[in-house]
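Narrative of activities, Objective 1.

The group set out to show that a structural description can be obtained from nothing but a protein's sequence at a throughput compatible with the screening campaign. Below is one input-output pair from the validation batch, recorded exactly as produced.
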Amino acid sequence: MRIVFAGTPDFAVPSLRAAARTGEVVAVYTQPDRPAGRGRGLAASPVKQEAVARGIPVLQPETLRGAEAQRELRALAPDLMVVVAYGLILPRAVLAIPAHGCWNVHASLLPRWRGAAPIQRAIQAGDAETGVCLMRMEAGLDTGPVLLEQATPIGPEETGGQLHDRLAEMGAQVLADGLGLLRAGLLPVPWPQPDDGVTYAHKLDKAEARLDWQRPAAELARTVRAFNPWPVAEATVAGERLRIHGAIALEAGHGAEPGTLLAAGREGIDIACGQGVLRLRVVQRDGGRAITAADWLNARRDLARAD
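Output recorded for this entry:
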């Protein structure tokens, strides 16, 4: 089976490996090299690096809407195109090229969290579970019928980065299962997504990372988890801008103005919120690395210690 794989970030790499194990990946599509790092030199995507290491030809068109790009894809004679976090829109003409269509590995239980940031939005919303879907692509945004899915609970302290890594591996397994069923002629009939329960996972914006102390502590704690490792929540604490890498919500009453530092000790830094208290446990100063709340307090002798 001739497979064309399209993907760009780390999340797609396990799926590329699964596709390479179960079929002949004749080409990999990924986004063009982008400036990265302090020197802003051009850097290859994680998917490109994996493809090059495996000796798989790599194509990096700016768009797939042009006739030349579509002729190039058609010349590959793919039986199937697998798309995982590619980052480019596939027009109808492209969707029609592979003999078995185009499949997408998506990190949510569709129709919940269609769109760009399903992992982070699921944590931020307080969802008890999430998962991965193997979907047959159509022209709409993540609207296609589902072939296979696998659910998983979201841990009470699981971060966006931790859930990302778990779902990347789960997605690769679901893809491998689907490819195996396709080879055996046992692929289930895709089921259409219901109209009820549709939500959209809008792209993350760094402006969202600023914590609003007027919000409930439980909501802020979920945001801290969801935005770790990017874009990382931030707030002003005792007059200092900090990035917040770890925090928990406390169901504690207080009569203080939201944003007030209530206590500071080895267990953390307690900040009054619109409802409850947010305990900061891992923070980062400007220009520094992530440190425990206790280490931050050692550098802030001006603050009263609670223990």
